[in-house]
Amino acid sequence: MKHLFRGLFLAATMICCSFQQAMAQQQLPPIPVDPNVRIGQLDNGLTYYIRKNALPANRADFYIAQKVGSIQEEANQRGLAHFLEHMCFNGTTHFPGNSLTSYLAKIGVKFGENLNAYTAIDETVYNISNVPVQTPGAIDSCLLILHDWSNDLLLDPKEIDKERGVINEEWRTRMSAMQRLQEKLLPQMYEGTKYATCFPIGTMDVVMNFKYQTLKDYYEKWYRPDLQGIVVVGDINVDDIEAQIKKIFADIPAQPNAAKREYYPVNDNKEPIVIIEKDKEQPHIQVLVFNKHEATPTDQKNNMGYLVQNYATTLISNMLNARLSELAQTANPPFIYAGAYDSDFFVAKTKDAFTGIVVCKEGAVDSGIASLLRETERARQFGFTESEYTRARAEYLRQLESAYNERDKRKNEEYINEYVRHFLDKEPIPGIENEYAIINQVAPAIPVAALNQMMQELVTDSNLVVAILAPEKEGMVIPSKEAILNTIKEVKSEKLTAYVDKVSTEPLMAEKPKGGKIVSEKENKQFGTTELTLSNGVKVILKKTDFKADEIQMKGVSLGGSSLFPDSEIINIKELNDVIGVGGLGNFSKVDLEKVLAGKKASVKAGIGNLTEAVNGSCSPKDFETLLQLTYLTFTAPRKDVDAFTSYKNRAKASLQNQELNPMVAFSDSIQAAIYNKHPRAIRLKADMVDKIDYDKIMSMYQDRFKDASDFTFIFVGNVDTAKDKALIAEYLGALPAINRKETFKDNKMDMRKGIYKNEFIKQQETPKTSVLVLYNGTCKYDLKNSILMDMTSQILDLVYTEKVREEAGGTYGVYVGGDISRYPKENAYVQIIFDTAPSKKAELMKIIFAEADKLGISGPSEANLSKVKEYMLKKYTENVKENSYWLKAIDEYLLTGMDITKNYETTINSVTAKDIQKFAADLLKQKNEVEVTMTSPETK
Q1: In angstroms, what is the C-alpha Rg of the chain?
Q2: Which residues of 774-806 are buried (b: 16+ CB within 10 A; e: fewer)?
Q3: DSSP per-residue letters across 198-228
Q4: Pairwise CA distance, residues 26 & 7, whole Å
Q5: What's the CA gap between 450 and 333, in Å, rounded?
Q6: Mean pLDDT, rounded, for 319-347
Q7: Which residues does 460 contact at the CB level (< 8 Å), separation at least 6?
Q8: Is the N-terminal amide bond of 56 cis, ω within 30° of 0?
């Protein structure tokens, strides 16, 4: 690879020049293609990518990516690219009607989770994920489905007409303030181009009235093999898959005289474009600042300079974001939030933009925009410092190292995403081995001066677009376009000074604690763990796994939580977890803590829940000591920072000031009040409550919960080196304070409402809509079987409502069904059903909702639906048991409730009958505890 690395050093030096010029002029080596992926093309133009990958075991993902989207639509087709995506699930030559979704459900592939698709402006992508390839016929069937999506849709007029209602309801659900504002932006940002009217949802006039042939015309014109890519990754035989692709897809004809697939250019602008749009339901003042610049042509993306360019833009964004985050921590921050990144110019691939986002405080829009522009301009004029770059590079390389360490543990979806982007956009796919070697070789050779030069190319004196998305609210003053243009000029002419990076050389802990001792050690065969007891009473459970090479997950937990605080402290209880983190730890502010941890993979966060207090964290094995140091400081040295707290209050108050403009807040508030009967602990923080947050009281409450570690149990799951890590555990966790309290949580009687309750209210909205919640609750024994029965009941209702409410009635985009059972503070169960619909359809749909729930409690589920749910749950279980998070949860659950979710899980699932489901549903329904909340915005005649 000597010639390759000579080219890399050339790429590192050319970063000081214009990237586009340098890549055109220099003969840089190409980026290698990962040798583990097989790429080929059929005679008809269809491209395919195949890779053998063992994780998850016995699973594979099947994708088809199309280089077409809503940008290809004519005026009379607006919304049809997206409509066509829906029709792919409603009948193909080999899978008519709903047999496609039904077949996949039978083998455990769940619609919405494993079977899905999306339509974007320039692309449409379909996926069948986590397919159990050991199931006979599964591989051939999935390839046949991809084949039919490519060329053999039925487009049955009856199915088309049924789907019109579904998409109309999807539009209704998605038509938020932000969606409306973005639709107003496009014609002004992309004036005179096809991007002006290209959102995939289209217009409902077209969706509800297009002629069948119009949809077929789009399909025949654009769904063709030269624009399609098949991607298969998983536990498969590559040769066999390739042979099958060649056999199955060979009958799709090439289209040598097909319409050209155009990529539409975006106009440049010398003078700034300022756009101001308002909406009555927009709760924040959000400003987007685009610095447009040329996108890298796809034929140059395989050039080594492109890899270096991506490295540079990532670090530039990260360093500027760190500065903006630091500014947000000041006592009187100029904005609620600000950030920056370099990517596509909003919706267009053919132009890039260095983009800034700032969420402004009401009455301070000018200063918020000016602050973002000023920090961007400061970076452009003076660049970044050596110390900033050292930290950013260390963090980037650490993340790359982690990915490299996990190279044999990568999941199918990670490869899939890379190959889809390579097919659609020619993004490089060198493979982590090559990328790790290349970047580690080239990064040290790229000086900070090179990135500073690049910053001047990303942000210039032209091609600026500023978009302000604001609430339409009486009395709110938004600066005029002229005022914004003046702000831009003023910032450009300001005499700025270079950023000063304040860096501490102090270690995270200057002195190590006087550690404790391990007083007992035993093996637990039930979970395959080692259990330690330390001299201060702390219990430690270690479970070594080989699921990930570079991960250890941690949880330390104790009973009590906020339940032990009085109801009168509810505002402090609500804000405790957020407020406690603003000050940092030990001698380090939050900003300085991020700096000292740069290049390390270790994080810890404390949290006080209703029943428990806990510390959660994760790290790489080599940063295990850092994880323990952070844990020790979390207990012993929470840092008070009055300026940071003042900043938090300022930003929180500004963020909450217009929250009620979003109508869904009223819906959520009504649900909380209905379910918990206006319990004092069931409140939402409002702007006028922020000044009541008591910092000293919160510090005292926090210290009370963490001053005694003797009743904490710490769980570590992952690539633990038990022999080596035990000494560090004794040193740090054994030194935690202990006063040997004996305590548990308190029942504050925050129970779900009993009896039947109904609240239906009118809330005017810009888009007429009815939102409904139905909740059933009652007592239920807490054990493994009932937990499984609750999961099955929810999934079965989801299947039924998808069929009856979405597909047959065309009444909603989707019905959410979710349920749970709880052990503490008392045994309880609930099932909730949530959906949006047109106000005129509400009565009809409610009949179906109630009838199907009652039917489940009387007759039980169909054997077909029960079988589908069982198959999915068994498949999911075999995937879960290979995750560190699953075992952390399992051990934590057992410690808290005594329920072992790992024991007899599969046996219990297989033993469940339709009668079991019927009885479980009936037992819950017969308690007649039912809450119904409906929010309606009437349709105008």
Answers
A1: 29
A2: bbbbbebebbeebbbbbbbbbbbbbbbbbbbbb
A3: --TT--HHHHHH--HHHHHHHHHHH--GGGE
A4: 9
A5: 31
A6: 98
A7: 291, 293
A8: yes
Is the separation of the CB atoms in 389 and 315 below 8 Å? yes
Q: Show Cβ contacts of residue 345 under 8 Å, excluding neighbours closer than 6 positions.
A: 266, 290, 292, 351, 352, 353, 355
Q: Cβ-count burial of 499 within 10 angstroms (0-12 exposed, 13-18 middle, 19+ buried)?
A: middle
Q: Would you call 896 exposed, middle or buried from its count of C-beta atoms within 10 A (0-12, 13-18, 19+)?
A: middle
Query: In the structure encoding, which two tokens stand for residue 173, read together?
Result: 């659900």
Look up the pTM and report it.
0.95
For residues 412 and 53, the answer to whether their CB atoms sit within 8 Å is: yes
Confidence tier at 599 by pLDDT (50, 70, 90): very high
Helix (H) or strand (E) holding 698: helix 695-706
Which residues are paired to 35 by β-bridges?
none
According to the model, what pLDDT value does residue 340 have? Answer: 98
Task: Say if residues 785 and 829 touch (Cβ distance below 8 Å).
Answer: no
Name residue, tokens 């379909």: 126
Gap between the Cα atoms of 796 and 856, Å rounded: 9
- 370-427 pLDDT, tens per residue? 999 999 999 999 999 999 999 999 999 999 999 999 999 999 999 999 999 999 999 9
Encoded amino acid at 188, one letter: Q
**Which of 610, 334, 542, 352 lies closest to 458 in space, CA to CA?**
352
Closest CA to 180 of 765, 936, 660, 934: 765
- Asked if 884 contacts 555 with a C-beta cutoff of 8 angstroms, the reply is no
pLDDT digits (tens, 9 = 90+) for 695-705: 999 999 999 99
Residues in CB range of 712: below 8 A, 6 or more apart: 538, 539, 556, 557, 558, 736
Q: Which pair of structure tokens corresponds to residue 898?
A: 């005594």
Q: How far, in Å, CA of 122 to CA of 69, rounded? A: 4
| Count of CB atoms situated within 10 Å of the CB of 180 | 18
CA distance 637 to 510: 13
Q: Do residues 234 and 53 touch, judged by C-beta distance below 8 A?
A: yes
DSSP 3-state percent helix, strand, coil across the chain (nearest 5): 45, 20, 35
Give the integer Cα–Cα distance in Å for 91 and 7: 52
Dihedral angle computed from the Cα positions of residues 683, 684, 687 and 691, in that order, rounded to the nearest 10 degrees: 50
- Residue-wise pLDDT for 10-28, tens only, equals 444 444 445 445 444 456 7
Please tell me the total number of residues recorded for the chain in this structure.
Answer: 941
Separation between Cα atoms, residue 288 and residue 790, nearest integer Å: 44
Instruction: Report d(CA 568, CA 562) in Å as an integer.
Output: 12
Nearest 5°: phi and psi at 447?
A: -80, 160
Helix (H/G/I), strand (E/B), else coil: 83: helix
* Cα–Cα distance measured from residue 514 to residue 488, given in angstroms and rounded to the nearest whole number: 57
Instruction: Quote the tokens at residue 615.
Output: 């510390």
The single-letter DSSP state of residue 36 is T
DSSP 8-state assignment for residue 754: P
> Closest by alpha carbon to 503, among 641, 311, 322?
322
**Positions of E strands within 216-362:** 228-234, 273-279, 285-294, 337-345, 348-360
Model confidence over 265-275: pLDDT tens digits?
A: 999 999 999 99
pLDDT at 20: 47
- Determine the Cα–Cα distance for residues 326 and 820; give it in Å rounded to an integer: 41
The span from the CA of 608 to the CA of 920, in Å, is: 33
Mean pLDDT of 311-326: 98
- Quick one: which H or E segment has residue 828? strand 828-837
Distance CA 238, CA 39 (A): 11
Checking DSSP bridges between strand 602-608 and strand 529-534, what pairing results, if any?
unpaired
Tokens of 122: 């320039």
What are the φ and ψ backbone dihedral angles of 247, each rounded to 5 degrees?
-75, -50
Angstrom distance (rounded) from CA 763 to CA 770: 9
- Asked if residues 845 and 851 have their Cβ atoms less than 8 Å apart, the reply is no
